[in-house]
Amino acid sequence: MCGIVGFINKEKRFDVLNNMLLIQNYRGPDDYGLYFDNGVHLGHNRLSILDLSDAGHQPFISEDENYVIVYNGEVYNFKQIRKELEKLGERFKSNSDTEVILKSYIHWGIEKSIEKFRGMFAFAIYDKLNKKIILVRDRAGVKPLYYYIDGNEFVFASELKSICQYPFFKKELNKNILPYYFQFGYIPAPFSIYKNCYKLEPGHYLEYDLNNNRYHITKYWDIDNCYLQEKIDANEKEILNDLENILEESFNLRMIADVPVGVFLSGGIDSSLVTAILSKKYKLNTFTIGFDDKRYDEASHAKIVANYFKTNHNELYINETMMLKKIEKLPYYYDEPFGDSSSIPTMLVSELAKKQVTVSLSADGGDEIFCGYSKYFALNKINRLFSNKLKKKFIKLSVNLLEENIVEKLNELLPSKIKQRNIKDKFNKFKRAINSNSFEDMFLEATSYSDKNIVRSILNIDINKKAFNKFKFLPQLSLLENLMRIDYKTFLVDDVLVKVDRATMSVSLEGREPLLDHKISEYLGKIPIELKYKNNQGKYLAKQILYKYIPKEIIDKPKSGFQIPLEKWIKEDLKLLVNHYISKEKIDKEIFNIDEILQIKKEVFNGKVKNLSLLWFVLMYQMWKEKWFE
């Protein structure tokens, strides 16, 4: 795992490159490199994972000096690709995947090269012969890559804070995208918090022509195409066997490293599946965190799984004091407004893992590829029920009469196996969803943490409805497939993967995502939805494979995930912080309607948590703005 930076300036400015690298040094503290040629500046922070020798130093320059690469990530099948290149007469001076990527480009061009790569990557190639720079981001978007274009200025980096170090960068707030941040808790790609500054989207590459300062972006992979394939005509047993083989191959590829590797283990389906399959071949180091508050604790589940597979298990029980200390660091590492509060425990489990390993596997993406989110099942049931107009009217009336506190009390009466975590938030999303006019809007509401009408009321900004339109359904696909593919392209990329990348990188730990191998997505896309959601059961296929390795009773439990006691914090431990940043004196009056914000704060302090997430998002925005914009 590393950090990359680059820009174009006729003057040699190693001082600027140094500043850009220094501010993201935690991404790669083992080494750094600078390069300049004819106005092109490239820089690299290195976290040594493969080929720890000086031969793996970057920027990496071809023997003829016509091609240069800076690269962040891993191409796990680089050894197979290297053999192909050696048959073509290539000789290698390192054992790194970096050299394989560059020589693949030289031999096959960019698209044919990417087709061969299995992994996570964000890289830039300077092609002197064709006078262009090519930026590439992996298919799932595991690795971040930002770029800034304004006139003849062209800058790119792994993180926004590095781009901010460029002296000619104009730090202008991208107000049009803020409503989406306050609705979702993240800023969706391709946008960033700054004007003229963008995220290169997953599955895309950008070619910048140095002759005329123009650029072109090409999409080379899309999850949609996985679902649009012809479905497999095979029985369940055959599909499970083929899927297990693909999973095993993909997981084993991610154990390739010249340093120790571990696994984040929550005890849920996805991380247990990764642990189960890898335990056949490896003695694993597993890591989890527990909470003193048992309502949020899942460490006991993880320990049972770890004991079953005889892993070298490590756990850390964290208290509120430990988590609260992390809040002040969030604006630095998540260098645009970011509202996912589970980033705090993710940073803590990363710290725990870093004490023993340099690489850790994180089982993200399982809900999106295996059909696991409860909102999918709820919307699927609503879809069936709403076909009857009388049932539709009755459901809407019943839900609209309920209040969140009543729902919470009813939830407490349920058996533990079906009791829901974070029920107030889920209910409010569900309530907004069933009052929507279309299923696209319904899913948008089920995915949003804040009511868009309330977001409008707190902002002095006109919402550009055309700014973000990734919630469009494909008519050829089922409802569930549409929900999965949209989450894969939005929430997974700009929330989950951002959270894990910044949390792991904050302690110089490489995070790998074994479930996001594109071979898995392409195979699962061909499987009929009836096998992914079967017998009213999500993650059906994943569970059937996992049941081969571990008794059902160990893993059949309510879905949890990292949760923090946000309601308690804001009303107690964080009250002073909230009052400091969300006050008439401190609030950004150009952006916010101060009276509406203060009213929401008052309601949350008095126990009405309908807008709890929104208040947290405002706090994160205010803290970010003080850190980076004032």
Helices, by number, come to 29
**What is the number of strand segments?**
17
Find the CATH topology of the largest domain: Glutamine Phosphoribosylpyrophosphate, subunit 1, domain 1
Return the average pLDDT rounded to an integer: 90
Residue windows where pLDDT falls under 50 for at least 5 positions: none
Number of domains: 3
The main sheet orders its strands as 2-3-1-9-8-10
Question: Which value, in Å, is the CA radius of gyration?
Answer: 24 Å
Could you outline the blueprint of secondary structure elements for this entry?
Elements: E1 2-8, H1 14-22, E2 31-37, E3 40-46, E4 60-61, E5 67-75, H2 78-87, H3 97-116, E6 119-127, E7 132-137, E8 146-150, E9 153-157, H4 160-163, H5 178-184, E10 197-199, E11 204-209, E12 214-219, H6 223-227, H7 236-253, E13 261-264, H8 269-278, E14 285-291, H9 299-308, E15 312-318, H10 320-327, H11 330-333, H12 343-354, E16 359-361, H13 366-370, H14 374-385, H15 389-401, H16 404-412, H17 423-434, H18 439-447, H19 452-458, H20 479-489, H21 491-505, E17 510-512, H22 518-525, H23 529-532, H24 540-546, H25 552-555, H26 566-571, H27 575-581, H28 594-605, H29 612-628
Parallel strand pairs: 13-14, 13-16, 14-15, 16-17
Antiparallel strand pairs: 1-3, 1-9, 2-3, 4-5, 5-6, 6-7, 7-11, 8-9, 8-10, 11-12
